[in-house]
Amino acid sequence: DAGVTQSPTHLIKTRGQQVTLRCSPKSGHDTVSWYQQALGQGPQFIFQYYEEEERQRGNFPDRFSGHQFPNYSSELNVNALLLGDSALYLCASSLEILANNEQFFGPGTRLTVL
Amino acid sequence: GQNIDQPTEMTATEGAIVQINCTYQTSGFNGLFWYQQHAGEAPTFLSYNVLDGLEEKGRFSSFLSRSKGYSYLLLKELQMKDSASYLCAVRDQAGNMLTFGGGTRLMVKP
Q1: pLDDT tens for residues B60-71?
Q2: Do the Cβ atoms of B97 and A90 come within 8 Å?
Q3: Which residues pair with A5 in a beta bridge?
Q4: Average pLDDT over residues A23-34
Q5: Cβ <8 Å between A41 and B98
Q6: Which of B11, B22, B29, B60 is the most exposed, fewest CB within 10 Å of its CB?
Q7: Cα B36 from Cα B29, distance rounded (Å)
Q8: Could you give the 3-state DSSP secondary structure of residue B93?
Q9: Comparing C-alpha atoms, which of B31, B100, B89, B2 is closest to residue A100?
């Protein structure tokens, strides 16, 4: 049973550039959430996708956008990169109908902005 | 909004018991999760509480008091591999968003 996968593992960009991160949810899951984790801090919720739509959004600017595809995989796009965007970006998947709705996390993409 | 507090660091001895506390102030509540995160790795699920009381799962137990906005994670018979960060997270009323505390870095010493 494949867990949550993310690509790429690491990425280095310069200020002002744009980046796209990818996530494939755990088999059977239909909901994808994205989190940003700065070094030494807890993850912060960016947004969640369900049925190919952004269902809920955290306190992040419009530079952060996303997409969910019919196969439930998802992309996170960040435009006009800032130094402060350097972080570990985590994708988590879950199954909507479960009461527990536990979120399973992928290994993350480490983004460095120079 | 949500505010979640937990100690930044704790140290304990192999074989001992440690309790990691988490307090929260939230505008909505639909469950509290504990995750373990080893350095450079993804968070992994440990426990879930939505009703008051204690949930036991092997060497790990988690307690919740909704009226006090308080939870703790209890780790028994500590092993060196338990050295990690422990994240407390509250789920919002809609059931979609997890708000995490800053994490508690636990160091287990021989």
Answers
A1: 999 999 999 999
A2: no
A3: A24
A4: 95
A5: no
A6: B11
A7: 21
A8: coil
A9: B31
